[in-house]
Amino acid sequence: MSDWMMIPAGDPENGVRSWPVFQPSQPRQARYFLGLYCLCVPPAACIAYVFGMVGAALLMGATMLLYLCCACPGFTVYLYTQTWSCSPWHWKTNLYEKLVFLFYQRGNAVFTTASPNAGLDFMRVSDIRPKEELDKTAIPYALDIHVPKKSTEEFGENSNPCWVNFVEKIEESLGKLPFTDNFDCFAEGEDPVQFVMKQVGHIYPSTYQVWDDKQSDMALTRFCLYGLGAHRIEMEELEGHSNNNHNDNDNNNSNNNSTKYYVVRTNALASLPVRDGFERYGGDAYFDLAWRPVKIVDFGLGPLRRNGRQESVTTRPGDKGWERAKFRFRSSLSVLVTLVDHLYGVHLQAANLFVTALRENVSAEHPMRRFMTPFTYQT
Hints:
Elements: H1 41-82, H2 95-104, E1 136-138, E2 146-148, H3 161-174, H4 192-200, H5 217-225, E3 233-239, H6 248-251, E4 258-264, E5 284-287, E6 293-298, E7 313-315, H7 322-361, H8 367-376
Antiparallel strand pairs: 1-2, 3-4, 4-5, 5-6, 6-7
């Protein structure tokens, strides 16, 4: 070791080892790591080259064999899905949606899943796994959320790790397919609901609530008071506001300069970017205390700013853009409730923590474990 690299045994003042700074010796010399081992490099490279040629030939042969076996079926499936855009279906969508559609077709797709039930033919007590630490995966873009993998399921096809891993690879690969947007409009008088029901067939779920009126102001009230937005109702009192169209007693004014409103908010989504051709989410719907729609304040209609200050557009009943504002609000609320309240709140938080605690801390023989098992299946 050079003299300049030697470290003193200790610090004369504190008695501890110090790490002083030294300048390298001059002149500076480059290092190329040349030695006797370099003589072995050319022969080893020639041997690696030969093995590489053999590997390339084998890879080309395997590729050709794979093409001969899969190309014709693959082209057949692709061209078959392209015919969906022809008459009478006119389903112009991406290959991704088409493959997902076929995936969920029962009896028509290769991958089918039996309907679960709590009977002895599906949920046998002997299949309940013992108390164990579950294999989990971290959720991207989430704050320290770990979800048990499908292979930790106790019943059905998901209890087979090989099958689960195979299906997961397919699901992950589907998202890598080319994706385009189609902005064709419905024809005048065409029913969008009937169109969707015709396209998806028996995949369309059965409805247990029939709302003949979906777009009126009264429908907006039902949507927020009894429907999807009921759990998100807030009360807000605005200073300097008064509603001259209704009796002050209806609005329960605390004074002449303030008015109370019921509010269902979705403007939390207004700052999220969207793909080209789509409008941003947004819209806070205000109702008086008699649950009559008063206005919709929308932060998603203005330009997207990164400084935290979004421009709002207020639309009231009777205004030119009122129907559009209601449509934007209903769509935004559906996304907000599905993504935040249902997916994140119910599945990733409540159900995830409950199932993990149940499986990792309660034995298979415990009555509570057996009682709760049917209610936690695939949650």
